[in-house]
Design goal:
Helix content is about 20%, strand content about 20%. It is of the alpha+beta class. The chain has one domain. Helix 1 crosses helix 2. The chain is globular and about 45 Å long. About 20% of the residues are buried.
Length: about 100
C-alpha cells in the first residue's frame, strides 16, 4: 500500500521531497492489464488492486469534503477532468501487488 499526494493536493509542495503529484492512473504504467502498460515505461510489473482518494479532512466544510471525496472515488475520471482544481483532495492511496 502506498499513499501519495494528488496533483492538486495542498501537501504536494509542502514536502521538499515531493517531485510530482499523482493521478488515479499513475501506476497503470506498471500493470500489464491496463492500457498504459503498452508504453513500455518499465519492466517492473505491479497489479493495481485498488485506489482510493483521501479527502482533506478537518476543514470547515467537512460535509462538502466527504461528498467530493465520495464523488472522486465513484467517478475518478470526471473528478480529475472537471473538479480537482476546484475541490482538491489530499492524496490517493493505492494497493499494489508485485507480479513476478
Amino acid at each position: 500500500m502506498v499513499q501519495v499526494p494528488t496533483g492538486t493536493s495542498p501537501d504536494l509542495f509542502t514536502d521538499p521531497t515531493h517531485i510530482r503529484g499523482f493521478s488515479y492512473r499513475s501506476f497503470d504504467y506498471f500493470d500489464p492489464e491496463k492500457a498504459l502498460y503498452a508504453y513500455g515505461y518499465s519492466d517492473m510489473m505491479m497489479r493495481v488492486d485498488n485506489f482510493q482518494f483521501v479527502g482533506l479532512g478537518g476543514r470547515t466544510f467537512g460535509l462538502l469534503d466527504r461528498l467530493v471525496t465520495a464523488i472522486a472515488n465513484k467517478y475518478p475520471q470526471f473528478y480529475e477532468f472537471r473538479l480537482c482544481h476546484i475541490f482538491p483532495v489530499r492524496a490517493v492511496r493505492f494497493t499494489l501487488s508485485v507480479i513476478k
